Amino acid sequence: MDPIVSVVMPTYKGSEDIEKTLNSILRQTYPYLQIIVVDDNGAGTDEQIATEAVARRFPEVEYYKHAVNINGAAARNTGIRHAKGKYVAFLDDDDVWKNDKIELQVKKMESLDDSYGIVYGPFISVDNNGKETKISGGLEGNILYEFLMGKVRIGSSLIVIRTDVLNEVNGFDESFRRHQDWELICRILAKYKIAYESESLTYKYMKHRNSPKDFQKIVDNRLYFLNKMERYITILGEERKKEIYSYHYTFLAKEALKQKKMSDCIYWIQKTEKPAVATVTLMRDALYNISKRVTG
């Protein structure tokens, strides 16, 4: 018998989007799905009431609500606790799957040995103007270093994970406000290989509804991630450790430049292993963004 896939959809301030997202689950060509919606708005709030009203229109959906808002990691863990499938797939409340996404990923997982714990696919980023950009992957196997270096982009909506692996690593770290999917994926990649299914497509709508815009919060979130990942970064060796930290410090310098915080930009450039290289990277990116605005 084909294995059940438990689809976990956490939602927060997403009542206007979840009908579209739920329909993309119901359109899946793979029929053996358990659909779990976890409402993290807080019981009795306007968003919770609106979200429940939408979810109740779908008899296939198991709906659970938190008494108070916690965070996305906690919502996903609530879903995992109710999961009955051999595999778990996550879908953010404003993302959409191609109709055969789950079927293709299950077929891939079923063909692999137990050294693989996770499979992912590409995604199409859709901006507020409807412009689509495809982000492909392709890297497979033991790719913890490549993932930490941003050489491959993997998020929660792109993956299917073995349920026993999720339970082995104790699910998501609920102390994370941001980057909780990165953190989980890193812990899995430290133990298991990952596979890639090139046709299992996800559409990600880049509203950044819940993303922080305050620069200090962006810094705090990124440093928290790095601090929690230090044990995994360290096992990769000293040279790779320096490269990983430099990559993330360069990101913070780029964000500071974007927000015209020049002293912060200089500070994070100087924190990198090779400040001159980081400066060239920032200049190249800035010129590219300028050219995009002029031509687009």
Total count of domains: 2
SS class: alpha/beta
> What is the CATH class designation of the largest domain?
Alpha Beta
Fourth CATH level, the homologous superfamily of the largest domain: Spore Coat Polysaccharide Biosynthesis Protein SpsA, Chain A
Q: Report how far apart the termini are.
A: 51 Å
According to DSSP, the number of beta strands is 11
The CATH architecture of the largest domain would be Alpha-Beta Complex
Q: Overview of this structure, please?
A:
The strands form two sheets. Strands 3-2-1-4-9-6-10 form a seven-stranded mixed sheet, sandwiched between helices. A four-stranded mixed sheet has the order 5-11-7-8. β2, α2 (46-55) and β3 form a beta-alpha-beta unit. The chain has two domains: 5-205, Spore Coat Polysaccharide Biosynthesis Protein SpsA, Chain A, CATH 3.90.550; 215-295, no CATH class. α8 packs antiparallel against α10 and α10 (238-258) crosses α12 (275-295). It starts with a strand and ends with a helix. The protein has helices at 18-26, 46-55, 72-82, 101-110, 144-148, 163-168, 180-189, 215-228, 230-234, 238-258, 262-271, 275-295, and strands at 5-11, 33-39, 61-65, 87-90, 95-97, 116-120, 123-126, 132-135, 159-162, 193-196, 202-205. It is α/β, with parallel strands linked by helices and 296 residues long. It is globular and about 55 Å long.
